[in-house]
Amino acid sequence: MTSSPQRASRLPAGMRALAHRNFRLYFSGQAVSILGSWIQQVALAWLVYRLTGSAALLGITAFCGLIPQLLVGPLAGAWIDKHDKKKWLIGVQSLMAIQAFVLAGLCWLDWITPSFIVLMALLLGTLSSFDAPLRQSLIGSFVGSRDDLPNALALNAMLFNAGRFIGPPIAGLLLGLTSEAFCFAINGFSFLALIAAILRVRGEPPKRAQGSVGQVFKEGVRYAWQTWAIRWLIITLIVLNLTASAYAVLLPVFARDVFAGDATTLGWLWGAAGCGAFTSTVFLATRKSVHGLIAAVVAGVVISAGALLVFGATTWLPLALGAMVALGFGISVCNVGINMILQSSAPEQLRGRIVSFFTSARFGFDALGGLLAGFVAVALGAGQTLLLEGAVLTVFVLFLLTLRQRLTAQVSALHGESHGH
Q1: Which listed residue, 1, 125, 244, 344, has the most CB atoms within 10 A of its CB?
Q2: What is the pLDDT, as a whole number, of residue 64?
Q3: pLDDT of res. 7
Q4: pLDDT band at residue 286 using 50, 70 and 90 as cut-offs
């Protein structure tokens, strides 16, 4: 048994997935791991900008950290569906811990160079191409109930965004008191918490896909492309993350050059976006209907476009922090809402591949958008870059509004089919 009726009855509806023992173990380990990851991400961005002062290099570093998700991610999903997910998650987490410790050691010895930072970002991105779909596709087996899966996904995203809210201000404080090396070491130790939790998980492993990796991959691509609603949800992910999510690459530029601040200012800007994102996942955890999720996704794109325009235009820090809260909310509602729809609608045997397509679109096009934003900012300036991206996203919003009713109807039908299996 993975849950008890008594425990389930005591939990609020928005936290019902925590009634499952395996998911509670995963949730506690993931909480520590995510906090460490956000501390490293802020420290790495600050290190790059401190060493080089280059917005373009910020974009290149972010690109290398995420582009493997686009190139490796889809095939990784097919590979994952054929193997023991629990065993490989432990292995990948161990390699990510080693990467963080190597980064900490080289930084502490003052042997770090911009080219090596880019190389380490590329390594972490490659490992993340396997880590993200491994974790996401295992969540269904951790809760053991398809009805509780959307709630588990929302709670998992809530953890991510809580870390995003808490981690950056902590990173800013630590950077002021210690060094980047100390932040990287903290992240290395944080991976051990999730490894320990996964080792304690009990139960039957998910079924493995049959056939070659190529055959398994083609089956997943065919399903995603031929299913109209899934195809358009993935297109929405691509457009949103190519434009709105690229703001993160330019935050060090805004912190130092636009708002005349330091690492602490960067931490507050990132933390404000995290606050909005965390609020969005609290909201999504209480959603029960697919109709509500589609409405939330469309609203998220609308909010993201407006917040980008405001943040790009202002030089007043309080207004910028408010825009960051709205932007974090809008992007997260869209990304997490689409993930909830995809995983709860897809057949169980295809879940690893559908998750990999989600992470590929989510993080791969975030990488391309970040790279593009870094280079455009060199020519136009950071503010003008975000105004341009906000305008592009606004045009897409107008088109998306015309698809809303059909999306709602088709996703409702898909959800009904998946529950019928």
Answers
A1: 244
A2: 86
A3: 56
A4: confident
